[in-house]
């Protein structure tokens, strides 16, 4: 299990490094598009996730599964032996649904139920860190390094991560590894500073433009997710990392734009602007 987990982590970090180098070469990190605190946040997030949060998540999830259903360890290994492709498709669709549900929940209005309101508050403040990038001059832009920048506890309390480790516990090693790699690579590319989808959406050939527009209803492309990171009404849209189909049919929050966002990132308060540690660790859970 450790080899599978480490292999996935190394591949993901390797792809992120590749896109970081691409963005640097492209000039997408200059002129205030990325500032020192963005790099500091990346360092904090990678360190915390790799050395604390992910090991704790593995320990807790496997400990729980071993405690409550020891007889089911490896019980579904036959699925990937006989139906690997179907298993991967099913895994990706369930994982995307669970992630999209929590993401939508964290961007929605406060529920009337007090327990749900407290739960939502946790997700909101933990996820807020992911939307804080750039400086006070509003020149900051979304880059691939932001893929892994979230507040502490976000990964630990994501139901799709627990679902993924449940699949591992049940023996779906290749289903989990391949499905997670597909989702991760796609999510990394939607955060990267890419605009090929815009060129296709605005292509003078109507067949190409309409085909791309149709694909945006099925898959999430960079511009869609960049608008999720914008300071505009569309920041509450395009919640899926990969399957825009759910944004379109389930959450009703699909937004297909034909230009890049004008302003990226949410407004920061003074403490968030000045301290990356405050930005990463502070949890104002008692506020409404």
Please characterize this protein's 3D structure.
Helices cover about 60% and strands about 0% of the residues. It has one domain. The mean pLDDT is about 95. The radius of gyration is 19 Å and the shape is globular. It is built from 13 helices and no strands. It has helices at about 1-25, 35-70, 75-80, 85-105, 115-130, 160-170, 175-190, 195-200, 205-215, 220-230, 245-250, 270-275, 275-280. By secondary structure, it is mostly helical.
Helix and strand topology:
Elements: H1 2-26, H2 36-68, H3 77-82, H4 84-106, H5 114-128, H6 159-169, H7 173-191, H8 196-201, H9 206-215, H10 222-228, H11 244-249, H12 270-274, H13 276-281
Helix pairs in contact: 1-7, 2-6, 4-5, 4-6, 4-7, 6-7
Protein name: Fatty acid hydroxylase domain-containing protein
Keywords: Membrane, Transmembrane, Transmembrane helix
Organism: Zhongshania antarctica
Brief write-up:
The protein has one domain.
Which key terms come to mind for this protein?
about 290 residues, mainly alpha, about 0% strand, transmembrane helix, transmembrane, membrane
Determine the structural class based on helices, strands and strand pairing: mainly alpha
Gyration radius (Cα, Å) is 19 Å
End-to-end Cα distance, whole Å, is 41 Å
How many domains comprise the coordinates?
A: 1
Strand content: under 5%
Keywords: Membrane, Transmembrane, Transmembrane helix
Protein name: Fatty acid hydroxylase domain-containing protein
Organism: Zhongshania antarctica
Transmembrane segments: 6-25, 46-68, 162-182
